[in-house]
Structures are given as C-alpha cells and as structure tokens.
Known about the structure:
The chain has helices at about 35-45, 65-70, 95-110, 125-130, 135-145, 160-165, 180-185, 185-195, 215-225, 230-240, 255-265, 275-290, 310-325, 330-340, 365-380; strands at about 5, 10-15, 15-20, 50-55, 80-85, 115-120, 145-155, 170-175, 200-205, 245-250. The chain is an alpha/beta fold.
Amino acid sequence: MEKRYFPSIGEKISLLGFGLMRLPTVNNAHKDIDYPVAELMVDKALAGGVNYFDTAWIYHEGQSEVFAGRALSRHPRDSYNIATKMPVWLLENLDQAKEIFAGQLAKLRTDHIDFYLVHNLNAECYRIHEKLGLHDYLRGLRESGAIRRLGFSMHDSPEHLGLLLERHGWDFAQIQLNYIDWQSLKGGELYGRLVDKSLPIVIMEPVRGGALANLPAKAAQTLKDHDPGASQASWALRYVASYPGVMTVLSGMSLPSQMDDNLATFNDFKPLGQAEIDVLAKAAEGFRLANPIPCTGCCYCMDCPSGVNIPLNLAIFNHYSMLLADQPDMAYLIFDNNYRALRESEKAINCVSCEECMTHCPQKIAIPSELKKLTDMVAGAQG
C-alpha cells in the first residue's frame, strides 16, 4: 500500500482511506449496515495496508461509528487510525459537544481519536464554533491525548478557508476534490491554500459520490480507449492522489469488489502523466454536459420535513440527463419508470420549498428549484 509521511503527522498514512459513509446495507435502510459484508471489507482493507478509517456522528443515521468500533476493535489498536467528526451544526452549548465526544469514544471502543475533525466548518458552522468556544475545548482534548490530531472538513470558498487557517492552528484539513470540482468548486484553490500552509490534506468525494465511476457512455469510452483495463474509479482516485500535498484519499466503498479495485489502484500506485490528465479533461467535459446537478448523494439534506427523498429524486433527474446524451429515444421512458417506482411520499411533488435542505447541502444546490424542474417535466409529459 502506498503510504505518505508528513513530519507534522509523524507516521506513515495509507494513501487510500476507507470512508465509512456508504457501507453495504440490508433492507434498503441506510441505518441497517450489513455487518458480515462490511466487516469483511474492513478486514480486507487492513490486510491490504489501509490504516485510515473515516466515520462521523451522523453517518448511517448514527450507526457508522457503532460499526467502526465493533469492526476495528477486533484488530490491534496500533494497526489503524480512526477519524471522526464533531457535528457543530447540532450544538446549542458546549455541554452537548462534551456529550457527543464521550459518546463517540464509547461507540468507537477507544480512549482516543487519532484524527478529529470539526465537521463541515462552513461559514454558518464557524459562527457556532466561535460562539461556543469549541476550538479551545477540542484543543484541550488534544493536549490531554484524547485527540491526537485536530482538523476540520469544509465545503466552502477559498476565502472562508483562508479565514479558518488564519484564526486557528490545525494539524490537517479535509476538502472535496476530484477532476470535476478542481475548477467548478474551486478545489484547486482550496488545495493550493492548504499546501501553502503545509497542512496535510485528506480528500473526500474523489469519485463524486460514485458518479465518476458511472460516467456517460461517451466519457466512459474516452477512458476505455486510452486504458481498457482501468476502472473509471481508478482514474478518479489516481487523479487526486497524484497531488503531493494529499495525505489520504477517502473512498466510500459499498461492495467488496470496490475494495478490491481500490486496493489494486493504491498497492501499485502510479501518478497520472500529462497524457492521462488530457484524457481526463475530455471525459470531464462529457460528464459536465450530462450531469447538470452536482449532487454527491451525501444525504446531508435528509430527512426532508415533507418526506421527499431528495438524493434519489436528484439522482433520477441526473440519470435522465445522462440518458438524453446516450439513449435519447429511451430517456423519458426510463426516467418515468424510475420516478413511478418512488413511494408517493418520496416524490419531488411533495416539496413545499421550505429550503431547510439548502442549509445543509455542502454543494450549495438550489434543491427546491431542481425538484420543481423535475415535477414540471412530469406534469408537462402527463398534460
């Protein structure tokens, strides 16, 4: 396994990190993790040299940390690093933060967290962070050894990142980066600011919620023509891992086959050359045309007060856009079948434009507007 060493971290960290946000489930329920399959994947990861496991208080409706504690505690504690996060947007006072942290230690079956992050420290969460004095509390935990390294994740502007770096001391940072968002979400600027501060970088959404492993036909063919044996996911992972400021790349794997493919990518890691970067640029152009909504399926927008299954509606809409490019004659028929398969309570038509979802969306998607486009299209076809 390719590993990277940063003096400020003090140990070699696997370039592939296992993101425990999209684990295999049973009964189509996000909170019902398929323990036998997921534990097999953890064991494969450790055997393959992965030593960075990322979870959070909210993942799998609170069950990801429980799973991580059970699965990882079967192995020597010094064989893995645990990363988890403080959900700052849920906090009303510092006592809540203390309760959550104690709960995380219990769930994870450990007396310390190796990499602790303030979760999604955007402008609004930063206001709460400052009001509660959260940084002082977490810094105290770092001094006591309950936290080994303190960092943050964020989905915000380079300017806001600059403010975070200016006002507080951090050990590492986590940003969204992939070959689509390098420009569209200013990922390249975020990366550059962190490199300038010599902060090790953890990458999230390198495959954009799986979208870059399921490209439109023309974009997929572009990659296949250049390297018939390489998976689409391996292209995306190699892209971000080729940047030297990256400490680890999180992959939210849901299947053992995905684990096998990712381990193969990083156990024989080869940075992208210029010719491959040029190929990815062509594939990216095709992707952007066919995927107008930048949803990664993170589910931060859920639960919707009106019952709408927001990620699934947006995925159906994006799939329709992709089909328009690949199978225009079949596009609406397939879309209509997918939309009809939703429960009535989950459909976009139930959206009341309360905009609560938008306050949690890391991608800043105008969700009610996108859902209205979907319902207008359905209404137009039925009319």
